Amino acid sequence: MPTATPAIAILGAGPSGLMLARLLEVKQIDYVVFERDDSATAVGQGGTLDIHTGSGQTALQKAGLFDKFKASARYDGQAFKVVDKDGNEVLNMTPDGREDRPEIDRKELRQLLLDSVPAGRIRWGHRVESVYRDESGSMAVRFDGGRVEEGFRLVVGADGAWSKARSLITPAKPQYSGISYLQTSIQTCNPNYFRVSRQCGTGMYMVISDAKSIIVQRMGNGSYNVYVSLHLPENWARQEAQLFKSPDFRTHVMTQYFADWSTHVTDLVRHSDGEFHSWPLWSLPPDSLSWEHVPGITLLGDAAHLALSNGEGVNCGMYDSLQLAEEIETCGMANLDEAVKRYEEKMLPRGVEHIEDGNQMQGMFHAQDSVVQFKVWAQSMGA
Ligand SMILES: Cc1cc2nc3c(=O)[nH]c(=O)nc-3n(C[C@H](O)[C@H](O)[C@H](O)COP(=O)(O)OP(=O)(O)OC[C@H]3O[C@@H](n4cnc5c(N)ncnc54)[C@H](O)[C@@H]3O)c2cc1C
């Protein structure tokens, strides 16, 4: 348990921040995590994440958590089927023998990481408002309500897309992609569940055509998350709030945007049973990752390199944490600043690649000829 002010403050208890916390814990380096949520269960944690060999899995191994991860990971979640709007098969990958990208619910991954650090290290209900260097030259964090904690040698912004630490390093801001995901679900008690599970299987079922998609993905408890992706204005869900929350919304979306799609695929949305949530896709411009090192502060995960969804975000973030923790160990706490510089030299090009990959992938799935583009891409990947 920390007694005086710890040397390192981590902003955000998402997968990236918690992975750094765990690695510092293992290396017996003093830290504290500030998280805006009031508790681990206060806010729903959303969908499922695929954890890759060579990045996310490597970080979990180095953190001594790989066996626990494997116990919760869903290897059959790697099944991936893609069809077009008429239900014609475009790709069908079975998970047999594959170990490179198992799925885990985001909620479970967060809990696994939380269980690996002492509870007292996480300060729940601490919404960061700003970060600054105080008169003594050390770093300070101001929270909502005005309270300040100061005396840190390093503040690590792991506070996601809208990081409050980023402005100290770069003026870059996330840009809206023009694409929004509308998320709902199909629970196991749904009268259509059996049909859905036979159609969608144990992993991801994706319908692409005409610059939009329907994605159905199995969760750890057997339910399915359902996403409809569309080109929509940035504030669409807010402008259409009444419609968005109405029980007729799922039918409205299918009629309005998917009228010429087969009911074989649109029934997946019509028969869904959960509330809808809007998930607009934002990313940082790739050229924003050219910042000069600023002593006392750094970023990792989405705070550093927010990208459009490409299945790499959480992997990239946990790998950032591994590289930062290893540089701190190598350089020693006496050379903390040097460690951060060395971390950033490796992370920045990786972050640019991640953002460009996300732009390319979402561009492909939301192109008018997405089926053609996807076939070419899948072939080039040997799928
Ligand atoms: C539609 C969609 C689908 C995705 N699918 C995948 C996928 O299949 N695979 C994959 O790898 N990635 C996926 N991602 C991306 C993935 O969710 C993120 O890359 C990953 O969660 C980043 O982790 P992080 O810890 O850096 O940030 P976050 O997960 O955003 O965590 C940030 C933490 O900081 C906290 N926080 C935020 N602001 C403050 C504040 N002011 N003060 C204190 N705390 C704060 C938050 O509450 C949160 O706990 C997807 C993203 C989207 C949008």
UniProtKB/TrEMBL annotation:
SUPFAM superfamilies: FAD/NAD(P)-binding domain
Domain FAD-binding: 8-346
Transmembrane segments: none
Keywords assigned: FAD, Flavoprotein, Monooxygenase, Oxidoreductase
Record GO terms (molecular function): FAD binding; monooxygenase activity
Name used for this protein in its record: FAD-binding domain-containing protein
Organism: Neohortaea acidophila
